[in-house]
Amino acid sequence: LTDRTFEVTAARLARGEYLVNSVAGCLACHSEPDWDAPGFPIRPGTEGGGYNWADEDLPWMTASNITPDTTVGIGGLSDDQVARAIREGIHRSGRALFPIMPYGQYKYMSDEDLASIVVYLRTLTPLATNLPPTEIPFPLNRLINNVPEPITEPVPEPDRSNRVEYGGYLVRLGVCRDCHTPMDAQGNSIAALDLSGGNIFTGPFGRVSSVNITPDPSGIPYYDEQVFVTM
After folding, report:
1. How many CA atoms lie within 13 A of 61 on its CB side?
2. Residues 181/209, Cβ–Cβ less than 8 Å
3. Helical spans, DSSP H, in 128-192
4. Strand partners of residue 208
5. CA 213, CA 145: separation in Å to the nearest integer?
6. Residues in the chain with pLDDT values less than 50
């Protein structure tokens, strides 16, 4: 950990709002979903207050409170503690975060986007939600200890003028692969089947499979820009 702080600027607040609420989807995991509403939107008043994943058959896992509350949120944490959790997967207590928190993808996040997210999270309404702490069962709590990786070099901004490069960057921040790339028996993504779908998810929504989002005929070769936007 360092003593670095992130300066609050209008540009960072705007970029952070975009990433947190859209691409990175932070609030989708760290808020309470309304399972009775179409599309399962965030239940108003719970934004960033944390969420226990019992409905997804993971009762031992809680997505942390990421509001600025000083008791159970990030209000008492340094900027670098928050940054380390996002990109390196280290909890404030020093334990490894369960990798459903996609720090394996967020490690590619640029330093500037990281700063923007931290700056924006501190503007959320503080919520003092009372949720059970994460208690990762054995042996998972040991097996994940080698997953976090330190960020030792600056991570530059992507070239936004290169649409393929920038698109690949957004795909990482959007964690598309974690849902849309099949996994082997050990839970590792199968690189040869990148983004081809087939992962099974269960929850209050039933049992669903992620779709193929490659240009293969079984995927989405017919999508134009408007279909992408609508989806």
Report:
1. 17
2. no
3. 140-143, 163-173, 176-180
4. 201
5. 31
6. none
